[in-house]
Structure formats: C-alpha cells, structure tokens
TrEMBL record:
PANTHER family: CARBOXYNORSPERMIDINE_CARBOXYSPERMIDINE DECARBOXYLASE, DIAMINOPIMELATE DECARBOXYLASE. InterPro entries: Ala_racemase/Decarboxylase_C (IPR009006), De-COase2_C (IPR022643), Nsp_de-COase (IPR005730), PLP-binding_barrel (IPR029066). Residues 140-331 form the Orn/DAP/Arg decarboxylase 2 C-terminal domain. It is an enzyme of class 4 (lyase). It comes from the Bacteria. One of its GO terms (molecular function) is diaminopimelate decarboxylase activity. One of its GO terms (biological process) is spermidine biosynthetic process. It comes from Sellimonas intestinalis. The gene is nspC. Its cofactor is pyridoxal 5'-phosphate. This is Carboxynorspermidine decarboxylase. Keywords: Decarboxylase, Lyase, Pyridoxal phosphate, Spermidine biosynthesis.
C-alpha cells in the first residue's frame, strides 16, 4: 500500500530511519565492546525484533510480560528490573532472564540466593542521589523519596556478597555530559564494590542517536569503567533505538471556533500519545510552525470528551479543512506501548514503511476495546 491508502489514525514506523539508529548503536558496540539492549518500555513493536536483534545484544524488561516478549520474539540476552517482584511470577522470570536486577535490601535477601542457584546473575539497582534533569521531575529516579534504587547507606558487605552487577538509571532524553556526572557519583558512593562486580548497567535515557549527542564522551565513560574495574558495560536505551523513526497519521474531522480556530482530529492526545499530556510536550508536526509564525493558526485537539484532550497550537501556510491529513513526527516511541481505548477510541493501526511501501502489521477494532472491559 501507499501512504495515501492507509486509514487513519495509524502509526507508521520507517524501517530505514530505524536502521540508521541501529547502525549508530552497532558502531558503538563494535568500537567499545559494550553491550546494548532494547528497553522495551519505549518501543515494543515485536514484529521488528528479529531485525533489531541483528544490531543489538538483546532486550530488557520491567516485568514478566515484557520479559516473555523479549524471550519469545528476540531470543537473545534478556535482562529485567522491577521495583518489586511478585512471588507467583518469580520462577517464570528466572526461567526467562539471565540478569535479574533487585531494587532494595529486602529484595536482595528474598531473591539473591534463588537467582544464584538458578545459575543467573543478580544485580542491584543503586540510587546515586545525583539529579541531572530539571525539566521532567516525574522522570527523575533520584528525586527525594524515590522508590527506584538503593542509596549507599542501606548497603552492606553482607548484602552485596554474591551480587554480580550494579545498575543505575537516572537519565531522561539526555546527553553524555549527564552520564559523566552521574558516573562520578556512582564511583564516589559505590566504588568500594565496583572491583568485585562482573558488570555495570548504565540504564537508559541516553539519546545516543540524536544528532547533537556527544558519542566520544560516552565512549570515554564506557572505557573508563572497563579499564578501571574490568567490568562488562551494558546500556539499555529505549528512545534512542526508534528516535524519529515513526509518525502518527491523522485526519481533520471538523473545524470549530471559540476565540480561536480548533481542528478536531481523529487522533487523541489522551489515547494515542499520552506523553503529550503526561510530560507534557508539544509533538513536532510535518509542514507546520509555531503559533502565529504562519498565516493560519489552529489548536489541534482530539475527539474524546476530555476537555484537556489538546495536542497543541500550530500554524500553517494554508487553512485546514475537514478530510485533510496531518502527520505528527517522532511517534514510534512511548505511543504504542502507552496508548489506551478511553472513550471507546479505536487504537491506531501499526504500519511498517519501507522504500515507500506500507505494510499493515496490526489492525484494531471494537473487540480490542471490549476485551479490556
């Protein structure tokens, strides 16, 4: 199919752009010997897992279902971290994952020996108490009162005996300067255990495939941990893998006016791109500009009953009309994995585009809505 034949709304993942990102990550792996995992929480289009697996070392999960998906669809290294594991699921997690990261002293006491007896590698997520982000406090694992990771004062030699790896995840859409600062804090607080570890996981939030990302600094950070402590280094980016590799195609349903022109679309911020409201942020839109920059400015909004289902204000060089199609950019990440059917909204189709040809991977209808209720 061609793009103009697709029904809206739909997510379109561009395979060529995905491969551009994967090639950057592959070069980093080859140059440093580090290992890179797909963080499925950002992008879980498992149809592409065999393709992604040609470039990366495996997957990382936040719970049992992601662990099963990674094992079934990519079948390479499979890591997991959860703030707390459910006892009834833990044996299955042990069967699926090679690296299991624990979050607290009580979780270490409960599960460390079971992990070791199963021949798997136990790790501990640490909290270096080093915040490097200010824009998105909701995503700061080092914020006061954070439930994510163990602070230095709660660890002891007895607890760390048998732990093979240290994991930290403190970044969100950041450059390698933030990693460098965080790594110094990790060494200052947890350096006494680093020589005893087999591996260290730098977590996610690294925007490695962004054009302004400082890869040489990242390489220095990786090599420092390898050469100083003899550690195997893991990174688990999510966004960087599918950054700018997907769009959301939508149609204008109606134009209404109330102090300004409002275009009602067949896509919803609340249902199809929840981060727009949660972060919040203004998603890029092809062939548009900031409000007032072009002649015609519209507020773009969804069709749900939520008054705040607003995507943002955009300007265009021509007036919008019902039936016109718009294309939001960078919509592969945190969309499919977070969308919902609030108000009975239809889930967008999932489409793969390659060399101008579009293949519908999944379509959704009424049954998906009904099954969830």
């Amino acid at each position: 199919m061609r793009k103009e034949e697709l029904r809206t709304p739909c997510y379109i993942v561009q395979k060529e752009k995905l491969e551009e990102n994967l090639r950057i990550l592959k070069r980093l792996r080859e140059e440093t010997g580090c290992k890179i995992l797909l963080a499925q929480k950002a992008f879980s289009m498992y149809f592409l897992y065999p393709f992604i697996g040609k470039y990366l070392d495996g997957t990382t999960a936040s719970g049992l279902y992601e662990a099963k998906l990674g094992a079934e669809e990519m079948g390479k290294e499979n890591h997991i971290f959860s703030p707390a594991y459910k006892e009834g699921e833990f044996d299955e997690i042990l069967s699926l994952c090679g690296h299991i990261v624990l979050n607290s002293p009580s979780q270490i006491r409960k599960y460390k020996e079971r992990i070791r007896q199963a021949g798997k590698s136990p790790g501990i997520r640490v909290n270096p108490q080093c915040s490097t982000q200010k824009e998105h406090a909701i995503y700061d694992p080092c914020a006061p009162g954070s439930r994510l990771g163990t602070v230095r004062e709660q660890l002891s030699g007895e607890l760390m005996e048998g732990i093979e790896g240290i994991h930290f995840h403190t970044l969100c859409e950041q450059n390698s300067d933030a990693l460098e600062v965080t790594l110094k804090a990790v060494e200052e607080k947890f350096g006494c255990w680093l020589p005893k570890m087999k591996w260290i996981n730098f977590g996610g939030g690294h925007h490695i495939t962004r054009t302004d990302y400082n890869i040489p600094r990242l390489i220095r950070c990786i090599r420092h941990m390898q050469e100083t402590y003899g550690l195997e280094v893991y990174l688990e980016p999510g966004e960087a893998i599918a950054l700018n590799a997907g769009t959301l195609l939508t149609e204008v349903l109606e134009i209404v006016e109330n102090e300004k022109k409002i275009a009602i679309l067949d896509t919803s911020a609340a249902c199809h791109m929840p981060d727009v409201l949660e972060m919040p942020y203004r998603p890029p839109l092809k062939d548009s500009d900031l409000p007032g920059e072009e002649t015609y400015t519209y507020r773009l909004a969804g069709p749900t009953c939520l008054a705040g289902d607003v995507i943002g204000d955009y300007s265009f060089c021509h007036p919008l009309a019902p039936g016109e199609r718009l294309e939001f950019q960078d919509m592969a990440i945190y969309t499919m994995v977070k969308n919902n059917t609030f108000n009975g909204m239809k889930l967008p189709d999932i489409v793969l585009e390659e060399a101008g040809d579009c293949q519908i991977i999944r379509s959704f209808g009424y049954e998906e809505f009904k099954r969830r209720l």
